[in-house]
Structure prediction request, 163 residues.
Amino acid sequence: MPQFDPTFFTTQLFWLFVTFALLYVLMSTLAMPKIGAVLEERQRKIDDNLDKAAQLKAEAETAIALYEKALAESRSQAQEILRASGEAMAKQAEERQKQLGERLAQQVKAGEARIDAAKEQALTHVREIAGDVAKSAAVKLTGITHDDAKVAAAVAAALEESR
Prediction:
């Protein structure tokens, strides 16, 4: 094998050095700057994306805080509306209860007045009937006809005693 022959070592080392130097120059002038640019661009995009993500996170936290504040305000407003409507309904119910009580009191008074009128009418008829019965009983028992005024006075006195 010729590469293991010591007579060719110097030429092989020369061409090794020339090839290495040429590849080193080509890599350092052409390939490495492009690779470096790509790496720098990638790092810049990553940093930009991280900055944008941090900014969006801050905006999301602000939006969440505003949402929670609005939610708390709407809950307090809802509680206030419920309280106000409860008070209004209680006031309305109290007013209706008062009106109903007044109407029932008027109906009771009217009913009592009708009862009193019916009672007076019945008592008037009872007095008349009692007077007629007493007059006819006196006529049958004694055979004497009495005056209507005396009979009415006697019936009224008897009714007053029974009360």
